[in-house]
Amino acid sequence: MDASDLLRSSLLHLSDSSLVRSTIEKAPVSRHVVQRYVPGTDVAHAVQAAAELRATNRQVTIDYLGEDTLDAGQAAHTVDTYVGLLRALKARDLTRFGAAEVSVKLSAVGQALPKDGEKIALDNARRICEIAHEADTTVTLDMEDHTTTDSTLSILAELRKDFPETGAVLQSYLHRTEADCKDLATAGSRVRLCKGAYKEPASVAYQDAEDVDLSYVRCLKILMAGEGYPMIASHDPRLIDIARALASRHGREPDSYEFQMLYGIRPEEQTRIADRGHQMRVYIPFGEEWYGYLMRRMAERPANLAFFLRSLASKG
Ligand SMILES: Cc1cc2nc3c(=O)[nH]c(=O)nc-3n(C[C@H](O)[C@H](O)[C@H](O)COP(=O)(O)OP(=O)(O)OC[C@H]3O[C@@H](n4cnc5c(N)ncnc54)[C@H](O)[C@@H]3O)c2cc1C
């Protein structure tokens, strides 16, 4: 394990500490600093961020933060928030041709509930898909830790019977993902490929960053050669170049795949990619539950952590 792996795993552990969490959440300047990665807590903040990104030719996918719901009421609240969000996006004419869509974590809509969790999550996700369909746009199911992969893919398959446009996410750090790419590289199938953000054991996931990248390229080759619609979710310049080369090798038109990046990360590169005629979609997270999301971003990149700590120190 090298120094950055050690830092990453320490940060992921630290993010579980309730003391660290409450200290950061209560720090008076945290909100200000967090805004670089999470534009706000309400639907209005998310819609405003979407409108600003659209003005620079970027598309968006919006995630209401709230993982690991262990209460059916909370899951219902999450669904209501997505419904309100989709209607607000449509009212601002942001959903046209899927320019603004939503990303949903099944754990936030009940997947982890002890009784009938999978069924509740399916029903809730279906409701969000219905409203998205009415608003002329789509839903992508985020992928969470490996214990949920089978359940998430089976809910995806159910949803696609009525809403074939529903997007999937696959994570290149998992050993199984090449096989999943082969299964999902079918006509019309929207598949977001990312490296993966959770701490996973060696029994299921590559531990070495180089191996994760090599797996990413193998998966990308499958998706680009297939009939689906690949969504390349990465800030990694090497992988973005490889994706571009593969798209051109397979004669793909610019509207047959897209690049995706996270809100606040490499914004200049986002506009550069969009300005070069590629589709560029930005993932916007919003909501009160920003802590876990932020910690995963800090774990990925020590420079982000340094920025965060420096901002806390200088403004606190
Ligand atoms: C749109 C989107 C959706 C996602 N959805 C999911 C999901 O559903 N499930 C999941 O597990 N994960 C998801 N992720 C997170 C993903 O798995 C990775 O954890 C995250 O994207 C970091 O991986 P990376 O490919 O950017 O590469 P990294 O290895 O983190 O970074 C590679 C390189 O990118 C550049 N870079 C990265 N960050 C910066 C920065 N701040 N400034 C400048 N350069 C930078 C650097 O050159 C760096 O070396 C998603 C990511 C994106 C972009």
TrEMBL record:
Cofactor: FAD
Gene3D superfamilies noted in UniProt: 3.20.20.220
Record note on cofactor: Binds 1 FAD per subunit.
GO MF term (any one): proline dehydrogenase activity
Enzyme superclass (EC): oxidoreductase
Nucleotide-binding listed as a keyword: yes
Binding positions (substrate): 105, 296-297
Keywords (A to Z) from UniProt: FAD, Flavoprotein, Nucleotide-binding, Oxidoreductase, Proline metabolism
Pathway: Amino-acid degradation; L-proline degradation into L-glutamate; L-glutamate from L-proline: step 1/2
GO biological process: L-proline catabolic process to L-glutamate
Catalytic activity, reaction form: L-proline + a quinone = (S)-1-pyrroline-5-carboxylate + a quinol + H(+)
Species whose genome carries this gene: Knoellia sinensis KCTC 19936
EC number: 1.5.5.2
Proline dehydrogenase domain segment(s): 47-307
Record lineage: Bacteria, Bacillati, Actinomycetota, Actinomycetes, Micrococcales
Name the record gives this protein: proline dehydrogenase
Binding sites annotated in the UniProt record for FAD: 143, 171, 195-197, 234-235
